Amino acid sequence: MSTNEEVSKLPANELKKILLKKILETEVDPSEEVYKKSFEVTYKVNLDIDGVKGYQIFEPTKYTYKSGEQLEDPDVVIIFKDMDYVRGMLQGEYIPTEWGRDSRNYRHMNKKDLMITTKMGSDERNAQVLLAKIPIFHQPLLNFGTSRLTLPLRDEPEPISPLKEGELESLIKKMLSESANLTDEKYKKDFQGLVMKVNWDISGNLAYQIFEENNYNYEFGKNIEDADINIVIENPDYAKRFLLDLPTNYAPGLDDEQNLIIYIKIPLLSLYFKNPEESRLSLVRIPFFRVILINQPPTPMDEKKDDRENYGHYIPVNLPMGDFENTVVPYKVLEYFINKSSNIVLRTCPCRERWECKDHDISLGCIFMGDDTKNMALDPDEGYHATKEQALEHVRKAIENGLVPLLGRNVGEAENGHGVRDTGRFLSGCFCCECCCIGVKYAAYGGASAMGGEGGGSMEGWKVKVDYEKCVGCGECVEACPYNFRKVVDDKIAIDPDKCVGCGRCVNVCPNDAISLDIEDPEYIEKFIAKVESIVDVEDQTTKT
Q1: DSSP per residue over 512-541, as a string?
Q2: 168, 221, 340, 360: most buried by Cβ count inside 10 Å?
Q3: Rounded to a whole number, what is the largest CA-CA distance in the chain?
Q4: Which range, 241-245, 256-260, 310-314, 350-354, is most confident?
Q5: Measured between alpha carbons, how far is 318 from 503 in angstroms, rounded to an integer?
Q6: How far is CA 275 from the centre of its chain?
Q7: End-to-end Cα separation, the chain, in angstroms
């Protein structure tokens, strides 16, 4: 019998003990550089696997653990809540998950359980844009976008009562009758010059709606043939929750045919941090979770060999974060793409929002460009479709504020973050600070910092260079590097050129001028632009032959 077969047959109590043993007994080497960086001070962990408990103590020079007991003042409590997830983890299965935090600042890893599937009548419009016009979709769409990873999860209500006979039909009819207010200004604006036809299939109950600027029709019990969008909810309990418009945590995604789907998030794992500044990324410092989080099993999309290329880099400013004298290089790169772009979206920064940044304004957040961004449904408090002038002013302020631009294509951000199909026309950019940037926090514990999830590295054509005759091994640059990519070896600084992103922080802190940014190819910026343009086209496709 294989290990997976054995795990599949084990009772829940045995699974709990096996997982606890694996976590506690994962190999730990206190002499390892990542360990020393992660645990410069003692860090205490309590584990609770559905009632089976243990603890870990990570000290600068040693590691201890014990099962069956817990510590009184832990730095973090990790609670596993779902045994199906534990079984799947032990079997190395892929389980779609997403993180979030609740109003108490507790972090939760959630399973994404399918609730709604959609199918468009044509490829001319995006489901998100149409759904945003239907009042009952207001709450689900507020959960869309990268900020849903950082903003508080909606507190779940008490479990809903079982469905009674005829109750679902009654709820559907109520939703149909209340979906339109022809005197409402928002309704008039949403459907000005537009006829939108919607089909519903809610646990076998059919219905349709026809929205127009000055008219609204609906009928229960049938679908129409030429609907603009078809909406299906198979689970009757989820349908009841949705139709009652109860506070629920939703997440977007795309199915195999690139249709928008909506999940309900169900907590699998919860984290309680003593220090509210910590995040789920802190788990990467714990050896067992570093393996789990960094070496994820292949996703179904991976197995389909998605050949769409992810690529992105920090744009060098030749100065450390916080110093904004040199704005020419990054401004010119972003200006180039902004001037070509058919559509631009500006939004607040979810990272600075999450960590309540004290150094930089959250309004200096992400920028998205290209035709695919037209399909984003935006919460007005988080983002808006911007003019080129607004976008250039946004870039100028961000760079002057000491933020380092990161630009490129990230398919996952478009499709899993915003529920928008990436057809090669979705260019992502952000403006990173050393205090809140998710790449900084992830890399600090040994993870990747690149936009594409790779090992990073500076932009091709230039490198960080060390003059070893001047270097005295003082370690100032090690402390200054937010990405954990520098260390002192044999009294000299060692830099991993394959990982260094070239943010420039180390250059100005060196007291002996031993570090510099060496430009190997004077055309490195032009080549970077060409590389980005080879995988992302931000121009208006309707004007191209």
Answers
A1: T--EEEEES-TTHHHHHHHHHHHH---S-G
A2: 360
A3: 83
A4: 241-245
A5: 7
A6: 22
A7: 60
Q: Which residues pair with 385 in a beta bridge?
A: 345
b/e per residue, 424-437, with b = 16+ CB within 10 A? bbbbbbbbbbbbbb
Q: 228 in helix, strand or coil?
A: coil
Q: Is the CATH number 3.30.1050 carried by domain 3-93+274-300? A: yes
Q: What is the pLDDT of residues 86-107, one digit of tens each?
A: 888 788 777 777 777 776 777 8
Distance in angstroms (rounded) separating the CA atoms of residues 129 and 149: 21
Q: How far apart are CA 503 and CA 517, in angstroms?
A: 10
Which tokens sit at 218? 């609906």
Please tell me the predicted confidence (pLDDT) of residue 440.
66
- The length of the chain, given as a count of residues: 545
Q: What is the identity of the amino acid at 80?
A: F
- Tell me how crowded residue 182 is: count the other CB atoms within 10 A of its CB: 13
Secondary structure of residue 196 in the 3-state scheme:
strand
The domain ranges of the chain are: 3-93+274-300, 112-264, 308-543
Give the single-character DSSP code of 136: G
CA atoms within 13 A on the CB side of 497: 9
pLDDT at 519: 72
pTM over 0.85: no
**One-letter amino acid identity for 71?**
L
Output the pLDDT for position 327: 43
The answer to whether the CB of 515 falls within 8 A of the CB of 465 is yes
Burial degree of 305 (CB within 10 A; 0-12, 13-18, 19+): exposed
Mean pLDDT over each residue of the chain, to the nearest integer: 82
